[in-house]
């Protein structure tokens, strides 16, 4: 700025005639009116336009790549089920952390390998679901991790 704002003269002082050059604005987008309205048409100035495509913000397929609520729920349930299976394996691996017998060590290794496979499946499924939901940035982040882990080829 040049040392002045809309309320002041070029020398940084208020106008000598007592006028308010802000047009009723207090500098943060509000108004100086105290009767609850901010506009001369008697409305509060709030835009109440429904831009949800008639869904009221709930349901519908806006931004979800055409997936309806049932498909979204099914996709999420699938990932949740995979996560639950993985957690069972993780608990078993943890329980076998101090294993000493050959059988327990072999089971720990099997569970560890199954857990790693579950992690890969969850990651790849998450990429697909996030992409279908229109969550492109999240899908790209998961894809990056998958490439780093060697699960996807380099671009």
Main beta-sheet strand count, sense and barrel state: none
Count of extended strands: 0
Q: Percent range for helical residues?
A: 40-55%
Class inferred from helices and paired strands: mainly alpha
Task: Write down the secondary-structure element order.
Answer: HHH
* Overall pLDDT level: 74
Strand content: under 5%
Low confidence ranges? 1-61
Radius of gyration, in angstroms, nearest whole number: 30 Å
Shape: elongated
Number of helices: 3
Distance between the termini: 46 Å
Keywords:
3 helices, disordered N terminus, 155 residues, mainly alpha
Question: In summary, what is this structure?
Answer:
With 155 residues, the chain is mainly alpha-helical. It has helices spanning 69-95, 102-132, 136-148.
């Amino acid at each position: 700025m040049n040392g002045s704002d809309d309320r002041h003269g070029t020398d940084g002082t208020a106008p000598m005639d007592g006028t308010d050059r802000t047009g009723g604005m207090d500098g943060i987008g509000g108004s100086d009116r105290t009767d609850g309205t901010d506009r001369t048409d008697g409305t509060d100035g709030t835009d109440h336009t429904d831009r949800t495509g008639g869904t009221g913000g709930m349901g519908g397929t806006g931004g979800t790549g055409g997936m309806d609520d049932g498909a979204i729920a099914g996709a999420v349930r699938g990932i949740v089920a995979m996560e639950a299976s993985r957690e069972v394996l993780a608990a078993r691996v943890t329980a076998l952390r101090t294993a000493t017998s050959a059988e327990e060590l072999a089971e720990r290794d099997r569970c560890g390998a199954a857990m790693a496979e579950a992690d890969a499946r969850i990651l790849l499924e998450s990429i697909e679901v996030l992409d279908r939901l229109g969550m492109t940035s999240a899908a790209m982040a998961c894809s990056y991790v998958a490439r780093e882990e060697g699960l996807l080829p380099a671009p």
